[in-house]
Specification:
Layout lengths: L5 H5 L2 H9 L5 E2 H11 L8 H13 L3 E7 L5 E7 L1 H27 L1
Antiparallel strand pairs: 1-3, 2-3
Helix pairs in contact: 2-3, 2-5
């Protein structure tokens, strides 16, 4: 199966990142990207050029917070966690995604 269009993934990157962080772990950007890739069975791949601007934008929106900490290999990294506002945003994003997916399924089934 081919990779989805970058625009398609970018439109749902917030949803994916917030869902990953909703598990309660504090993760650095590379770990977030790896988790998305792993859980999607390598179908979705998030590049640094998309991920880090999205993380910055989500932090400015108050959906996530970050702090500098040492990583597993003792390198300094920014670790992210979801906020209460981010959990509310995640709920809205998940609801929108569910409605859109159901609508697309109906069109595919009935066309």
């Amino acid at each position: 199966m081919g990779k989805p269009d970058k625009d398609q993934l970018l439109g749902k990157l917030d949803l994916l990142v917030l869902r990953i962080l909703s598990g309660g772990e504090r993760l650095h950007g590379y770990a977030i990207a790896e988790r998305i890739e792993h859980l999607s069975e390598n179908v979705l791949q998030v590049g640094e050029g998309s991920l880090y601007p999205a993380l910055h934008r989500m932090e400015e929106s108050g959906w996530i917070r970050s702090a500098w900490r040492p990583s597993d290999n003792n390198r300094r990294a920014r670790f992210y966690r979801i906020t209460a506002a981010g959990r509310r945003r995640l709920t809205r994003e998940e609801n929108e995604w569910s409605r859109a997916a159901a609508a697309i399924a109906r069109v595919l089934r009935l066309a």
